[in-house]
């Protein structure tokens, strides 16, 4: 299968990846997956110690080290320009550059427009959209300096589900897709692939459960490792490969073309 090579192979040896939102959930699985494929990984998020939800950047780094991989914990709040710049600088100081970004940090709010407090709306835009803008803008010069690389933003199939209503979360992710599709054109000449990646089905992460996600039938769920495998595949691209696309994890991997 196409994806098996991407997962088992060491396709990313010599590459440096920055994963924003990597303390738990999909981001943690992606960080572990990229390290398993040979990349040195900057594990970036805010949680340095256990908070309301399980998962810390240090715990994920320990997991990667225990498996023989290379990783660095970088405290990072994607809504703060200063914090993002410091996290990227720490990564470059440790690993010598950046080839891959996975902009995964996100917050969920699925309330209808009428009952959405301004603070919720703003938080979705700040983390999900401005956060992607800030981390992307900060890594681009470093990826350019490598002569090419890959940027991946994690979005959602909800962007297309207009029949299910509107909410701040889907709006913020729709804007990210427009940002990244345009950025693919801007960065083609720099040999940088730019793509969005969504889970094909729900990933039952800590954040998803905490935000009220109830029980789901098994057929509605995919494991976080599927997103990790898809991210590894996209991380290995440059502008000569897959770029300017919105991908679904299982479809990209050829696992579930009918969904
Ligand atoms: P999660 O379990 O809540 O994890 C979210 C991650 O984002 C955490 O590592 C969190 O770390 C980080 N984060 C949140 N705010 C941040 C900030 N201001 N600065 C830096 N990092 C921040 O969520 P998930 O389910 O894994 O979702 C990950 C991504 O996939 C999100 O973008 C989400 O929209 C997307 N997605 C998920 C699903 C799904 O089925 N789960 C479906 C479609 C799309 P700290 O709290 O430590 O900062």
UniProtKB/TrEMBL annotation:
One of its GO terms (molecular function) is oxidoreductase activity. Coiled coil: none annotated. Keywords: Membrane, Oxidoreductase, Transmembrane, Transmembrane helix. The keyword Acyltransferase does not apply. Pfam families: adh_short (PF00106). The keyword Transmembrane applies. InterPro entries: HSDL2, NAD(P)-bd_dom_sf, SDR_fam. The chain crosses the membrane at residues 25-45. Belongs to the short-chain dehydrogenases/reductases (SDR) family. This is NADP-dependent 3-hydroxy acid dehydrogenase YdfG. It comes from Actinophytocola oryzae. The lineage of its organism: Bacteria, Bacillati, Actinomycetota, Actinomycetes, Pseudonocardiales.
């Amino acid at each position: 299968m196409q994806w098996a090579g991407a997962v088992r192979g060491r396709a990313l040896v010599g590459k440096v990846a920055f994963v924003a939102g990597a303390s738990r959930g999909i981001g943690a699985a992606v960080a572990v997956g990229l390290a398993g494929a040979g990349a040195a990984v900057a594990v970036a998020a805010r949680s340095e110690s256990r908070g309301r939800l399980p998962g810390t950047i240090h715990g994920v780094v320990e997991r990667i080290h225990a498996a023989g991989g290379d990783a660095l914990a970088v405290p990072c709040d994607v809504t703060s320009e200063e914090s993002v710049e410091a996290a990227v600088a720490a990564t470059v100081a440790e690993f010598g550059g950046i080839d891959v970004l996975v902009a995964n940090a996100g917050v969920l709010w699925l309330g209808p427009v009428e009952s959405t407090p301004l603070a919720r709306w703003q938080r979705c835009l700040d983390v999900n959209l401005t956060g992607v803008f800030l981390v992307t803008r900060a890594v681009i010069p470093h990826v350019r300096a490598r002569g090419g690389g890959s940027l991946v933003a994690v979005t959602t199939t909800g962007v297309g589900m207009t029949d299910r209503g509107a909410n701040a979360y889907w709006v913020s992710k729709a804007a990210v897709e427009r940002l990244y599709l345009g950025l693919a054109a801007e960065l083609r000449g720099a040999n940088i692939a730019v793509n969005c990646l969504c889970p094909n089905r729900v990933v039952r992460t800590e954040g998803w459960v905490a935000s009220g996600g109830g029980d789901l039938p098994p057929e509605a769920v995919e494991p976080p490792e599927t997103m990790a495998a898809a991210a590894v595949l996209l991380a290995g691209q440059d502008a000569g490969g897959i770029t300017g696309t919105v991908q679904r994890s299982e479809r990209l991997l050829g696992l579930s073309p009918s969904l």
